[in-house]
């Protein structure tokens, strides 16, 4: 019974973990690292962190629950090197080492191996609408550094892999209700079948709040997910996951120039289906077939006007409909006692319908084909080499190769050293290449403005990354140190600049600043963007039932253009203290420090603004009770405590109000009660 050795789970995660813990770790590794996590994300092979060809951070279920966070995106503030901010309550800006545009597109984000990032239209990830609840998450693996060799060019700076719990792992029903200031109202419910050959989990959630004080910022989101795991035979397993999200969020500003970013409500809808089949010819061999389909739609419409200029009513929209289909296959195999390998490929097709954003194009279709492979070779008892490559063909672009080579040395029973090189290319999203927004007066047909000008010849940026890593474990306090020295050199970086095209637009001729919106287009800068620095994480348990986590990164930004340089914070840090006071009480306290950060380019690309550095504090206190036959958890949580601050500024609005921040975050405190907690 091959499958009876481990439970089924999407992408074979538990299979990988069980196999790695069931004899794949070398005896020479030493007992000090035996309980370190086994990860699959960096190379698609089950590996101990000390053998992985990348720096990896794992957010385990204990930590995720202890934070009390409502937003998944906020968790990444606790990862070294991650730069996270919010322009408003429902819009999250998540990058690794900064550099992101208004919708960051430099990190691949996966849920059970399914990419939720889409290069169609605006790119980026809609974190508020992610079709997964916090209760469903088993763990999150974050690859800190490029991983295009495993997941393609959207893994340009790293990968976030959200791994959900296996169906049947927590049988029974649970429900959570939460409420807080700014009219926070949350409900979540989960039902999990008993474990067995056919297990099912259902989860649903609704969350709403009024956003940050003083902003047009109310949001509501509903999420549903179904996951079923089926053991078809001794060697075959299937997983089905169906998800949907539906919601609305307010955005915009009442005094936006010409109402170009006026107050409005954005309605979003998404639905996805993911089907996997996994076959094990033998315990050391796995074949995985993965298909998913995704539909996303957004309705974002408003009116701009300039009555003084004779244009009283001009409709604008960012409406979009996106469809994605992907078929992926991979084969994991053992080639010898000291050699493991994985190889596979993917075919993907996306269509985007957004005629206002892409003038003259009713629909744009893109295709992607990729082949990947990774080989892990234990050269000697204490030496491991990882060699990998990804070949990818994106639509009308030429085939590009992303290679990687890493060497890991177990220098002692408590010491691991790692060094490697990788190259990656980032796909340009459709807005960067084909964005062509033309605003017409509906009464006369006169072209009034053209804020986005297409650049179909835009080249994909390339990153060459060199890193040295050091993993160490110290006996006092069971302390673990993870250090990464990096040099990341990007050529062909994509930025936005003014262009002289269509200089006779009426709004340019008559509208005074700040009402002038100059035509601009994306282009490849002619200077390298180089980031050098040091990041580290220290985890220790200095006393009974206590856990302290320190993250810190310092970045030397070697970038000629100040407008690009300010898109990287020169430092970030976080310090967290988790404590189990008794079997009933636990708490977590975090201090978060973010250096000055621009956070993208903004609609008015010619205006530069950098939000000042800030420190903020989060806390959560939990009490577990037994009420009859049910476990009950009561949690009081707070975020954005401490001094007032602004994280990501809306540049267009900030230009109107240089005297101070236009969208400061609000302090939020909320209480939640969970019945049937597991």
Strand content: over 45%
CATH class category name: Mainly Beta
CATH homologous group name: TonB-dependent receptor, beta-barrel domain
Q: CA-to-CA gap between the ends?
A: 29 Å
CATH fold-type name: Maltoporin, Chain A
Basic shape: globular
Largest sheet: 22 strands, antiparallel, barrel
What's the helical proportion of residues? Answer: under 10%
Structurally, the number of domains stands at 1
Q: Based on the coordinates given, report the CATH architecture.
A: Beta Barrel
- Helix/strand-derived category reads mainly beta
The strand count comes to 37
Q: How many H/I helices?
A: 7
Given as residue ranges, the uncertain stretches (5+ residues, pLDDT < 50) are: 1-33
Evaluate the radius of gyration: 25 Å
């Amino acid at each position: 019974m091959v499958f009876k050795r481990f439970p089924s789970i999407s992408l074979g995660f538990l299979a990988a973990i069980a196999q790695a813990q069931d004899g794949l770790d070398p005896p020479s590794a030493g007992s000090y690292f035996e309980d370190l996590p086994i990860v699959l994300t960096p190379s698609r092979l089950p590996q101990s962190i000390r053998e992985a060809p990348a720096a990896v951070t794992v957010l385990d279920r204990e930590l995720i629950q202890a934070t009390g966070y409502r937003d998944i995106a906020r968790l990444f503030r606790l990862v070294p090197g991650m730069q996270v901010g919010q322009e408003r309550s429902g819009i999250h800006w998540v990058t690794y080492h900064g550099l992101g545009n208004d919708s960051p597109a430099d990190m691949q984000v996966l849920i059970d191996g399914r990419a939720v990032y889409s290069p169609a239209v605006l790119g980026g990830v809609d974190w508020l609408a992610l079709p997964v609840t916090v209760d469903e998450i088993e763990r999150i693996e974050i690859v800190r550094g490029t991983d295009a060799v495993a997941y393609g060019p959207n893994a340009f700076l790293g990968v976030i892999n959200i791994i959900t719990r296996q169906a049947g792992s927590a049988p029974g029903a649970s429900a959570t209700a939460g409420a807080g200031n700014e009219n926070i109202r949350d409900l979540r419910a989960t039902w999990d079948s008993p474990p067995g050959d056919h297990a099912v989990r259902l989860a649903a959630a609704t969350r709403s709040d009024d956003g940050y004080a003083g902003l047009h910022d109310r949001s509501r989101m509903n999420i549903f997910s179904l996951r079923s795991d089926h053991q078809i035979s001794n060697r075959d397993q299937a997983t089905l996951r169906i998800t949907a999200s539906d919601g609305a969020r307010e955005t915009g500003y009442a005094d936006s120039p010409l109402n170009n970013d006026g107050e409005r409500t954005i309605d979003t809808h998404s639905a996805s289906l993911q089907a996997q089949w996994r076959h094990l010819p033998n315990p050391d061999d796995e074949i995985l077939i993965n298909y998913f389909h995704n539909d996303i739609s957004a309705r974002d419409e408003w009116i701009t006007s300039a009555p003084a200029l004779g244009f009283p009513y001009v409709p604008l929209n960012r409406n979009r409909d996106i469809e994605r289909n992907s078929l992926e296959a991979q084969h994991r195999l053992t080639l010898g006692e000291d050699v493991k390998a994985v190889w596979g490929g993917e075919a993907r097709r996306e269509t985007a319908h957004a005629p206002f954003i892409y003038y003259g194009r009713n629909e744009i279709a893109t295709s992607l084909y990729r082949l990947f492979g990774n080989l892990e070779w234990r050269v000697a008892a204490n030496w491991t080499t990882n060699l990998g490559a990804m070949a990818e063909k994106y639509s009308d672009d030429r085939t590009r190769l992303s290679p990687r080579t890493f060497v890991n040395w177990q220098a002692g029973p408590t010491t691991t050293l790692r060094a490697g090189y990788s190259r990656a290319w980032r796909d340009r999203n459709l807005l960067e290449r084909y964005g062509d927004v033309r605003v017409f007066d509906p009464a006369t047909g006169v072209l009034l403005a053209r804020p986005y000008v297409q650049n179909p010849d835009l080249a994909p940026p390339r990153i060459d990354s060199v890193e040295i890593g050091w993993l160490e474990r110290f006996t006092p306090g069971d302390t673990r140190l993870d250090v990464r020295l990096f040099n990341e050199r990007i050529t062909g970086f994509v930025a936005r600049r003014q262009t002289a095209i269509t200089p006779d637009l009426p709004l340019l001729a008559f509208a005074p600043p700040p009402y002038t919106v100059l035509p601009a287009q994306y282009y490849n800068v002619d200077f390298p963007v180089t980031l050098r620095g040091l990041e580290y994480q220290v985890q220790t348990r200095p006393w009974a039932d206590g856990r302290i986590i320190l993250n810190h990164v310092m970045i030397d930004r070697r970038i000629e253009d100040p407008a690009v340089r300010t898109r990287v914070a020169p430092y970030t840090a976080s310090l967290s203290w988790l404590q189990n006071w008794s079997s009933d009480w636990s708490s977590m306290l975090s201090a978060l420090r973010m250096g000055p950060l621009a956070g993208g380019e903004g609609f008015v690309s010619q205006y530069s603004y950098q939000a000042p550095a800030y420190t903020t504090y989060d806390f959560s206190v939990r009490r577990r009770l037994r009420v009859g036959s049910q476990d009950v958890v009561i949690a009081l949580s707070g975020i954005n405590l401490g001094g007032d601050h602004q994280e990501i500024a809306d540049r267009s609005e900030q230009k109107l109000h240089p005297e101070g921040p236009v969208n400061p975050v609000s302090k939020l405190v909320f209480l939640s009660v969970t019945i049937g907690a597991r």
